[in-house]
Design goal:
Blueprint (H helix, E strand, L loop, with lengths): L2 E10 L2 E11 L4 E5 L6 H8 L7 E6 L2 E2 L5 H7 E4 L11 H6 L12 H14 L14 H14 L4 E5 L7 H18 L2 E5 L3 H7 L2 E6 L2 E6 L1 H4 L2 H8 L1 E8 L2 E9 L3
Helix pairs in contact: 4-5
Protein name: Cobalamin import ATP-binding protein BtuD
Organism: Candidatus Syntropharchaeum caldarium
InterPro entries: AAA+_ATPase, ABC_transporter-like_ATP-bd, ABC_transporter-like_CS, Metal_Ion_Import_ABC, P-loop_NTPase
């Protein structure tokens, strides 16, 4: 499943958020979207998932515009993990993850649906949470459950909006590794908006650095995460070290104006 974004634009009155975004993402690719706050990362994710309607341009999945897909077909193709885990779910964690099977469920839940939930619970290592109520979980625990729910959809495209923001270091690494592994084993295309440049560097196959609603640079982490790009886009002086063939970013100070 190849995803192609062409000339995508989105604005609020008097303020352009996305300004002619064009990029292609390949099957089995883990693609990171990075950039300072307010550059349009979340807006881009939401336009891909049709949560927001772009004002121009298109998003194509294997040659078909996503806005032309009906809701059930779209839910089978695209899984979405929001930036903030909502509270107030009265359901158990197991039932919350089971909601990911809704695009496939007819009159009743099948044994195959149950097996898919159990498989995903084990994959995320959240067996001890499965019978707890979702609303009782911590923010980090909720975030892992939402990742599990999206994976349970068996999507061809997985969209993640800052899914590690509420996780401690250990669980950040676990979730990133799981997503990286799944993209390769299942052939899923994963697109993640993320602030942590070192996590993006370590796990993403390619990254797009956004600035002012445009893509300032796109390529491998080695190509994009340079001293010059980070200074220009983030306004920060950094040192870039080599860590196992991947760039490791050491912030030094803000650029003096």
């Amino acid at each position: 499943m190849k995803l192609k974004i062409k000339d995508l634009t989105f604005s609020y009155p008097g303020h352009t958020i996305l300004d002619g975004i064009t990029v292609e993402i390949e099957p089995s690719e883990f693609f990171g979207i990075i950039g300072p706050n307010g550059t349009g990362k979340t807006t881009l994710i939401k336009c891909i998932d049709t949560i927001l309607k772009p004002h121009g341009g298109c998003v194509m999945l294997d040659g078909m515009e996503v806005r032309d897909l009906d809701k059930r077909e779209l839910a089978r193709k695209i899984g979405y993990v929001p930036q903030h885990a909502p509270g107030g779910f009265p359901a158990t964690v197991f039932d919350t993850i089971l909601m990911g099977r809704r695009p496939y469920i007819g009159w009743r839940v099948t044994e195959s649906d149950i097996d898919k939930v159990l498989e995903t619970v084990e994959l995320l290592g959240i067996e001890e949470l499965s019978l707890r109520t979702f609303s009782e979980l911590s923010g980090g625990e909720r975030q892992k459950v939402l990742v599990a729910r999206a994976l349970c959809q068996d999507p061809e495209v997985l969209l993640l909006d800052e899914p590690t923001s509420n996780l401690d270091i250990k669980h950040q690494l676990e979730v990133m590794k799981i997503i990286q592994t799944i993209t390769k084993k299942r052939g899923i295309l994963a697109i993640m908006a993320i602030h942590d440049l070192n996590l993006a560097s370590r796990y993403a196959d390619r990254v797009a650095m956004m600035h002012g609603g445009k893509i300032a640079a796109v390529g491998t982490p080695e190509d994009v995460l340079t001293v010059e790009n980070i200074r220009s886009v983030y306004g920060v002086e950094v040192a870039v070290r080599n860590d196992g063939g991947k760039p490791y970013i050491l912030p030094i100070r803000p650029v003096e104006v």
